[in-house]
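User: quick one, fold this
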Amino acid sequence: MAKADETGGALPETHKAGWGQFIKSLAGWSGDLSSLTAPSFILSPVSLTEFPAYWAEHPNEFAAISSGKTPAERAALVFKWFILTLKGQYTTRNEKMGSEKKPLNPILGETFLGRWPDQGGRGETILVVEQVSHHPPITAYHITNPTAGVTLTGHSGQKTSFSAPSIIVKQVGHATLTVRTPEGGEEKYLITLPRLRIDGLLLGSPYIELSDASYIIGSNGFVSTIDYKGKGWLSGKAHSYKATLKSPSGEVLHTVEGQWTGVSKDTKSPSSSLNFDANIPKEEVHVKAVEEQGPTESRRVWKDVADGIRAGDYDKAGVAKSKLENEQREKRKNEAAAGTPHQLVYFEHHDADLDYTNLITAVSSLSIPATEDKYAFRPEAAPTV
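Assistant:
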């Protein structure tokens, strides 16, 4: 009988040897893990280009941000919406597939297009995602609800390393939320990304914990600081956090703590809107049927691979994956030979993000760079979704 604490103890017998070899390769790997090949049975049938949809799976909360009558109200609504996005972003795969899976690494130029239809007058929310770099892998995204006057634009990448017994993921990039105010002006909120720790590797049942801190910095002077605690070896609850929301003068308006997968309590203002439960219904993004998608759209690109993974036919998935990757290498080789590098479709790269540079000065952290680049959305190239 298998022991629960042995390597791969949470896996079927047929997968244990492969998982053991993978753990050994992790321990012996130096540098970034993004190019390390994982066992087929831990691959996800979903590409990373689909992940930005998690930002808007609560479209009512996203649209409601601009309804705040004052900067303080809007800052609180931004905070609540952000915390509500975390459960979908970082625990959904465990709920659907039993444990965290390694997503498919997008091809250069891969896109993901979707929308959340208008309901109750909230307006339609539109999602545009593009894989803007392959080495290193970077995904740019633009989410907008023109009716509500709320738009999120950002980019993200990952730098991964192994620190026994966990994989550490440093998320690269940031997001900027632009909100139309009742007076007709706009506010911007810079959102930094938390660091991830993938635990449960030895048992073969990986799950994500958030660590360190992230920030929401408003152009109106309001700043949210979110410290992620997580579960330690001996104590603590999984997915725990504690946060403060401060006014421009530095006054703490809200102190919120709890679990970003469950109940949050505002210990400073027990009757505020920041007492909430993350276990509320979410809305899946609406996407065209695969046969109606363009050649670069994610679910069409990875259809054969995803079909194989979902059917448990990992040989089929592996063959399809290798074919696609070889085609991409040949395409990049031909582009280099012809002197015609890949051109971005929906985004434009800028070496510096002035909003980031101006807003990040509100916080002090050695782990946060003073400047970052950005991928600006090109409205003239907006697709029909």
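User: anything notable?
Assistant: The mean pLDDT is 91.
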